[in-house]
Amino acid sequence: FFVRLAVCSEGPRAMTDLRKHATYEVGTVCFYEDEGDNWRICAIQKVAGEPPKQAFSVRTCTIDGTLEADGLTATVPLDKLAPLSEEWLAPVKDLLHMVTLHNSLLLEQIRSRYWRDIIYTNIGPIVLALNPYNYNLPLYTDDNMPKYIEERAEALHGGSRLPTHTWSVAHNAYWSMVKYSKAQSILVSGESGAGKTEAAKIVTKYLARCSTHFASAAEREQARVITDKIESASPILEAFGNAKTLRNDNSSRFGKFMKLQFSKNGFLHGCYTINYLLEKSRVVGHAKGERSYHTFYQLAAGATEEERERYRLQDPTAFSWLYSGVERITEDVQA
Predict the structure, then answer these.
(1) Coil, helix or strand for 257?
(2) Is 191 annotated as a binding-site member?
(3) Is 159 annotated as a binding residue?
(4) Residue 192 counted as an annotated binding residue
(5) What is the CA radius of gyration of the chain?
(6) Using CA atoms, how far apart are residues 35 and 40, in angstroms rounded to an integer?
(7) Which helix (H) or strand (E) holds 40?
(8) Which CATH class, in words, describes the domain spanning 14-86?
(9) pLDDT over 90 at 20, yes or no
(10) pLDDT band at 10; cut points 50, 70, 90
(11) Which member of 50, 51, 251, 325 has the greatest number of CB atoms within 10 A?
(12) How far is CA 322 from CA 14, 283, 305, 319, in A?
């Protein structure tokens, strides 16, 4: 999947220039930079000192200035404030359509969509996905998948009329491959725990369904078998390559390149996976509060008596490098 760049003579205004000329007084609704939650909308409650060393006492509020009952309060310097205009927060489906650009406005757009259960947002051809920790959001359940598939090549180049989804990226990649006879790539990136592994599974499932939606029953069954094999391989890869970290109980500690193979008719008929950059140091040690790879705990806690004797396994707690600084939990044995 390729990102297209375009040169525009006129584009969104940068907040940098607007901040230079912004003024703040008691009652002004603006943004302040919060250490724990980044940029938040606030109302200025008090101003102390003289420019340029003023201190602003602020409290979180809504866009119309209504103070939050249990809102956050803070005292911040001038460089931690950013101006706000209601028109700058007009809802957009694509962040490139914002009239003014700044971290505060970008985050508020994404945050407001998230609280409306809209977890996907376009940044041009890129799709930004937030982990909803909920698989049952009405817009994104699998029964909506045929609607995307039936748009076929008409959805290319912004022609889709459906809400943005991870499926949208997969759909564009598939039909670009079919229409232009060129291999496509989809890059999934993000912080630990952001949902990269799940996003890759969603993409794979969609490509399998999309490629055989208009095919015969036999061809659809073949794609389903391949998809099942891909999904069955995930727990094995995760056992040997995933571990608990401070931020994620099932963090991938390796990179994965998955190549899906399609026939001349566009039907999914094969797949292979290459793993790379495994965090080898975790095999012999890990930080406090973290764990080594899942497979060691599975073997140590789930082996039969025969296997314990064959592999000379002791009580799991005897392996200090597995449990050092980590409290043993019942999830050590994973199905």
Answers:
(1) strand
(2) yes
(3) no
(4) yes
(5) 25
(6) 10
(7) strand 38-48
(8) mainly beta
(9) no
(10) very low
(11) 251
(12) 50, 9, 20, 6
Task: Check whether 75 is labelled as a binding-site residue.
Answer: no
As a whole number of angstroms, the distance between CA 171 and CA 189 comes to 18
Residue 173: both structure tokens together: 């990649």
The full length of the chain comes to 335
**Residue 122 bridge partners (DSSP):** 94, 127
Q: Which helix (H) or strand (E) holds 268?
A: strand 268-276
**Is 270 annotated for ligand binding?**
no
Query: Does 317 belong to an annotated binding site?
Result: no
Picking from 317, 211, 307, 311, the residue whose alpha carbon sits closest to that of residue 268 is 211
DSSP 8-state class, residue 224: H
pTM: 0.81
SS3 readout for 45-74 = EEEECCCCCCEEEEEEECCCCCECCCCCEE
* Residue with tokens 């055989």, as numbered in its chain: 212
- The tokens describing 245, both together, are 């970290």
In Å, how far are 83, 123, 136 from 87, measured between CA atoms? 12, 19, 32
Which of 189-196's residues contact partners 24+ apart within 8 Å by CB, and which partners? 190/129, 191/247, 192/245, 192/247, 192/248, 192/251, 193/131, 193/247, 193/248, 193/251, 194/129, 194/131, 195/129, 195/131, 196/252
Question: For every residue of 113-150, which 3-state class applies, written as one string?
Answer: HHCCCCCEEEECCEEEECCCCCCCCHHHCHHHHHHHHC
Whether residue 53 is annotated as binding a ligand: the answer is no
pLDDT above 80 (res 281): yes
DSSP assigned state of 43: E
Quick one: pLDDT at residue 9? Answer: 36
Domain assignments of the chain as residue spans, ordered by start:
14-86, 117-278, 281-332
pLDDT on residue 26: 96
CATH architecture under which domain 117-278 falls: 3-Layer(aba) Sandwich (3.40)
In angstroms, the Cα distances linking 75 to 42, 46, 72, 79, 102 are 11, 9, 11, 12, 21
**Residue-wise pLDDT tens digits, 129-159:** 988 888 889 989 999 999 999 999 999 988 8
Contact call for residues 29 and 43 (beta carbons, < 8 A): yes
SS3 274: strand
> Which CA distances in Å does 235 have to 197, 239, 242, 252?
11, 6, 9, 11
